[in-house]
């Protein structure tokens, strides 16, 4: 059975998709792998995203902002993490991948003081981690090969999940 390649996609690839990639790879079995990219990458990973991952014990070595044009593998599953409900343009990956949307507000655009901005990053991380944990309970590779429509429905259902209170 082919190991599915999962891509977390947003516009800048500096926060949300980076958080999702690192968290997924930290929690997943070695047989699963995720990457991330942006349609218009910022060229840097937000320092708060890196600090949050490190605080959570998740490796950050090699994390960098990259364009979807730079992908070495064609993804089997693309999960967009932009917040289209907030008027943000969500990139449309045009390859032959199964697609799902897990909209999350961009913590890099959070306003306020130190406490409010850090809270925005923490909330984004908790939402993504909760959804990734739910995804990892699915037989992703099996469903992708035998029943992709069920996998798509499940991924969309997961995209609506909110984290449990900390």
From TrEMBL:
Signal peptide: none annotated. Pfam families: LMWPc (PF01451). SUPFAM superfamilies: Phosphotyrosine protein phosphatases I. Gene3D superfamilies: 3.40.50.2300. The keyword Metal-binding does not apply. InterPro entries: Ptyr_pPase, Ptyr_pPase_sf. SMART domains: LMWPc (SM00226). It comes from the Bacteria. The keyword Protein biosynthesis does not apply. Residues 4-138 form the Phosphotyrosine protein phosphatase I domain. This is Arsenate reductase ArsC. It comes from Acidithiobacillus ferrianus.
């Amino acid at each position: 059975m082919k190991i599915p390649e999962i891509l977390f996609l947003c516009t800048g690839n500096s926060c949300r998709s980076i958080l999702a990639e690192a968290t997924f790879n930290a929690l997943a079995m070695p047989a699963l792998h995720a990457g991330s990219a942006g349609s218009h990458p910022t060229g840097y990973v937000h320092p708060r995203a890196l600090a949050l991952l490190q605080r959570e014990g998740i490796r950050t070595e090699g994390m960098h902002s990259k364009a979807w044009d730079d992908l070495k593998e064609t993804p089997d599953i693309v999960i967009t993490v932009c917040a289209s409900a907030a008027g943000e343009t969500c990139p449309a990956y045009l390859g032959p991948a199964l697609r799902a949307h897990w909209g999350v507000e961009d913590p890099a655009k959070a306003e306020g003081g130190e406490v409010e901005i850090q809270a925005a990053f923490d909330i984004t991380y908790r939402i993504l981690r909760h959804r990734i944990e739910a995804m990892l309970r699915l037989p992703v590779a099996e469903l992708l090969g035998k029943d992709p429509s069920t996998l798509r429905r499940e991924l969309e259902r997961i995209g609506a999940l909110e984290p449990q209170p900390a």
